[in-house]
Amino acid sequence: MGPLRNQFATDDLAAIVIGRNEGERLLRCLDSLSQASLRIYVDSGSGDGSVAQAQARGVEVVCLDMEQPFTAARARNAGLARLHEIAPGIPFVQMVDGDCEIRAGWLEQAQAFLEAHPEIAVVCGRRRERAPEASPYNAHCDREWDTPVGEARACGGDALMRVAALAEVGGYDASLIAGEEPEMCVRLRQAGWRIWRLEAEMTWHDAAMTRLGQFWKRARRAGHAYAEGAHLHGRAPLRHNVAPMRRALVWGAGLPLAIVLAALVVSPWCLLGALAYPVQVLRLGLRARARLGARQAGAHAALLTLGKFPEALGIVEFHLRRLSGHRAGLIEYK
Asked: In order of start, what are the domains of the chain with their CATH numbers?
């Protein structure tokens, strides 16, 4: 029996959801996509019944081979391959992570925008954290999602995309363990396509990030993604990920090492150089105060500064593994 199609949906739009052990979050995600004419769920080895629950909702399910390393990029490519097999004529696809829920009205607005702008390959909107009040880490995610409106250099995991544009650039790089969307957007822009961010509510995201250890792992994954992206496209004129990678290395590795070495070689008074960190928090907080308010600006600045340490660790890990020939595994924070 083939995948069930929604008789009230447009035949021009499909949805690809990726996930692993998302539980109720996955069900909310799938239900929010009822307007898509075809829903495809790609599962990366869930053990919580996600596959059966998706199938019970009439969703086409693709189960990845567990003998091969899982990556989000590999899952997205598998979903695209299945879409080409069973519905090759569908021009638009909503990519979405299984811990997200599509907001009402997004699909219609995003599809209309792509139809009116044939030069644009990807359109995204405002992703919001479902429970930013639950922890400072969730709130930090919510602020991170608030990207500028207009032409963009990249999108995140949730976006409506033109299927032909994805096929033209060969889809996602399945070898990347993170940062696969910005890397693909580099290739899309090189091919002459444009990326756009609308002032529109797109998705709820459920980070469920309540512990410092989760924040640390997520930032470490970001550092790994910076390093991978810069390794692929860091040379001029693209300079992809070079600036955030340098900031992470300076604040998360270079400055601490310089302070410790100076204290050992020159004088213990050099440890006062660590005051650069509270000064940085103050500087970043003052810069964000008008936009976020005093309390949120302080938390934002503190987490931005703290995050440079795990980011630097992720960068170093990438290069050590690259030089040793060892492939990195997934870095999951949930």
From this structure: 10-210 (3.90.550.10), 233-324 (no CATH)
